[in-house]
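Let us practice reading a record.
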Amino acid sequence: MNEPVFPEVPPTLGVYAVEELVVTSAFSRVFRGRDRLLGRPVAIKVFTLSEAKEERLPYDRDEWRRRFVAEARLLAQIDHPNVIRVDALGYLADGTPYMVMPWYVANLRREIGRDANDPDRAAALPEPERPRSLTPDRTRSVIRQLCLGLAALHARNLVHRDVKPTNLLLTARENGDVRLCDLGFARRPGGGAASRAGVWIGTPNYCAPEQREDASRVTDRADIYAVGVLAYRLLTGALPVGAFAPVGHAGFDQIIRGAMAPRPADRPTAVELAAQLHRLQP
């Protein structure tokens, strides 16, 4: 099988030096770089989409490119401590867009490992990647910061649609503050191109029931369902598959049940959930 050919990224992009490729996702590559004038590290995210991956994604290449540029412009306008900011948008020589963001040393997966409910699969993972839980106090902090970041998006009628551990960046390797990132799947006011039939939008383990049925019609409460799933995952080290099992903390049990209510209208808003977490005694 031929390797995909990606656009060549030069060693410098304006004031930014490109140092190392660190992550390749379905539709982007992220490089660690450096602002040569200010001397600070940056993340340079370059739009990248191979033909093989395009067939398995909900949008075609032109729509992904449009969404990439729209995401950069949107994040450049949001000034919130729990949402990643974009400092620059540019284009490679062939017209491929890229965005420049602050560099963060980790995402939430570093603290909690991978999702793996199967004990055999979990045991087969390297020790640093095995599923782990967090303390109630740390869980409350992470989830509350996430809710505040989501509230900033929801205030602009945006629905993230892909809340999960890898989309929560951390300002430090341990107990860092949260920065919500990656709006590639976000539902924006006015909609956009229709997704391909039968192709997922979001991450199945964190998707609300209504998002599984029709992601184009979801409201902000779909994000709240994912927050409930994540809270359960942080407290137990497992995903809430099948019947809901209490997490062993009365306050969190109530919060998670409310966030994961089957009917979207029965779930709290992000602001209401953040307030509940503020009042919660860990």
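A brief commentary: The chain has two domains: 12-102, 106-279.
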